[in-house]
Amino acid sequence: MTVAGAVLALLIALAAAALFAGLRARAGARRELAAHARLAALAEQSPAVAMVVRADGRVELPERLADLLGFDTLPQQLDEIVGNEAVFDKAEGRVLEQDIAAAQKAARPFRTIVRSKGSARTLLAIGQRAPDSIRAPGGVVVWFFDATESQEEVTRLSGEAAKYREAFQSLTGLIQSAPMPMWYRDGSFKLAMVNNAYVAAVNGKDAESVVDSGLELVDASAPGGPLASAMAAREAGRPRMVKLPATIGGARRMLHIHDVPLPTGGVAGFAVDVEELEQARVGIKRAGEAQRAMLDRLSAGVAQFAADRSLIFCNQPFTRMFEMRAEWLADRPEFDRVLERMREANRLPVVRDFPGWKAERRDWFRAADAATEENWTLPGGTHLRVVAQPLPEGGLLVIFEDLTEQVQLASARDTLLRVRTATFDNLFEALGVFAADGKLQLWNNRFRQLWGFDEAFVTSHPRVDALAKAAGPRLANPGRATLIAELVRAATVERQQRGATIEFADGRHFEVAAVPLPDGNALFTMLDISDRRRSEAALRERNEALEAADKVKTAFVANMSYELRTPLTSIKGFAEMLHAGYAGELPESAVEYSEAILASVARLGDLIDDVLDLTREGGALARASVDLELTAHAAAESVLPLAQAKRIELAVEVDGSAGTVKGDARRIRQTVEHLLRHAVAGTPEAGRVLLHVDGGAKRARIVVSDDGPGMAKGLAAKAFERFVQPGISRDGDRALGLGLPLAKQFVEAHGGTIQLVSEPGEGTMVVVELPRG
């Protein structure tokens, strides 16, 4: 029983202990559950959602994060998140994957921004190595924060910051580029910032050196200097301006120094150069003095009144015109007193109500419009033109011009007008004056009689359209009458002078013209040119006959040249056979004779070719690249035997700039040969002929010169004329000197120019310029 009781007691004790432990464990479990619930509630309300990425790529994330990422079901692997392009951009998914891998391998934390396509949210991902308590060895915990609103705010603030930064840079650039010196003083009135104009004004190296050395634009120790002005402006709390001199660029300048206190406690300042303004003020003062001196020398009387109507200036003609004493004018009399003194001197128009007349003249001071002008007729026959001009400052300038002589001249002018009218009516030329509106204003008798108009018609001042309609039947072609209206309209509206010719039905021809007049009217003139037209017709017929004769002559020369080729070919053939010994061996003298015949035949053939080329008047040209150096040497080689026969030195100079031109190689070579032959023919024995070729970017130049006897000015002027060369040929052997005319023809066919310069005893030079293209 004892043992049983002990066992039972032990069991009861163990049961009590177990019960106590169970109750304590239950209480602990309740606390843990409460803590877990509290942490779960906090996690649910937390702005961040965690995702655990294990070492094998498995992920653990709550449904809240899956919804935030746009998943319908919970993903199990990391690849389902970062590799899903429907959730993340491919680049952002790759960056997140690389950051997670770096955190797993190197325990390197990361922060990155990702944008979820599924939910259109901006997320901030913060990752780090998973702690041991999570029981995910080699894993990574990634916290996702919804940063959509904060990112938008950051974007907005970044935009505003960029805008303010741009505005600040623009303002800084504006200050730096301002043409006037500008600066900023801190709370201790030391220079803290200056612009480029300030640096240039004080001859500083740069803004930093100027600020460091404290270079002042104006002497700071001077009373009322820049420091004192800045202090006064800050104390008063409003901008302040002082006028101070300064030396800028070695010149003394007057500156307006403006100091503006700022809320920061500093003072901003800028300087305006008013030296030119000061000079302008001095200039205005001098101009006023010069103006008064000039007014003193005018023939017209001038009086100037101030705003209080007192006389402040009058010139000498005014005092003489109105008989006023200088000592009385020195007291600056009032406007009314001046008028009364004029009346006492009998120098005003006679009026019944003088007080009312004087009151009307006082209104000149208050006239808001332009100057007032009046004409005064004084006793004794004097005529005055009075101009009253109100001044901007409230005064009045009155000018008195004596028109007595002009009135007398106007009377004389009327007489001259009557004389002009009589002359106008008796001119042989028909004249009519049309107003700007097209109406006939003036006409002479010749104009009316020529058109056969009635006196009543022209005195009604018809418009030019009606006048042209009435004039149509008088013309050979009535439709040409509209030309009258067109000419008058061109002269009155377009202010242009135009002319034409018209033919009357009776065979007479007239040259008509409309001339614009200074007053806006138009003068229509008609001149009978019937005799001149008959002379022109006769000359035209003669010219046509001469042209026909010239064509016949050219055709005859061309045909003769062709006809001469047949016998010339026979002569050349037989001469060559004789020279070759087909008729037997010839004596030495006969061989020489046959050679002379062959030379003459070749020369005659060249002359026939020249004549044919001359009568062709150009023709089609080949267009190819022509090397001027090769062409010059080839032409010189063909002429060399002629030069050697006369012991003439033939020199060829070709510059590297000669190059090539586009043209006919054969014609260009013939041109050079003709010029060289002409030069050799005109150069005496033992002389010198130079062929020089050079050029520029657009044109090539060929120059042939010799040291021969030269040519007279009159003969040189005819050097390029056809079939007149015998009179100016410099070689008796050349019966027809066609070389220069042919050269001119070939050069002009290539669009070039040729010029001959020669002086007696100075030789001759021919210059040819050919375009490159």
Percent strand equals 15-25%
Strand order of the largest sheet: 2-1-5-4-3
The CATH homologous superfamily of the largest domain is named Histidine kinase-like ATPase, C-terminal domain
Number of strands: 27
Give the count of helical stretches: 24
Sheet of most strands: 5 strands, antiparallel
Mean pLDDT: 81
Shape: flat
Estimate the helix proportion, in percent.
40-55%
First-residue to last-residue Cα separation? 146 Å
Determine the CATH topology of the largest domain.
Answer: Heat Shock Protein 90
Can you tell me the number of structural domains? 5
What is the alpha-carbon Rg in Å? 57 Å
The CATH class designation of the largest domain is Alpha Beta
EC number: 2.7.13.3
Domain Histidine kinase: 559-773
GO molecular function, one term: phosphorelay sensor kinase activity
Enzyme class: transferase
Structural topology:
Blueprint: H1 2-45, E1 48-53, E2 59-60, H2 63-69, H3 79-82, H4 90-106, E3 110-116, E4 121-129, E5 140-146, H5 148-177, E6 182-185, E7 191-194, H6 196-201, H7 207-213, H8 226-236, E8 240-248, E9 251-261, E10 267-273, H9 275-296, E11 301-305, E12 311-314, H10 316-322, H11 326-329, H12 335-344, H13 354-362, E13 372-378, E14 382-390, E15 396-402, H14 404-425, E16 430-434, E17 440-443, H15 445-451, H16 455-459, H17 464-471, H18 482-492, E18 498-503, E19 509-516, E20 522-528, H19 530-580, H20 588-616, E21 624-627, H21 628-645, E22 649-654, E23 660-663, H22 665-682, E24 688-695, E25 699-706, H23 713-717, H24 739-749, E26 753-759, E27 763-771
Pfam families: HATPase_c, HisKA, PAS_7
Protein name: histidine kinase
Domain Histidine kinase: 559-773
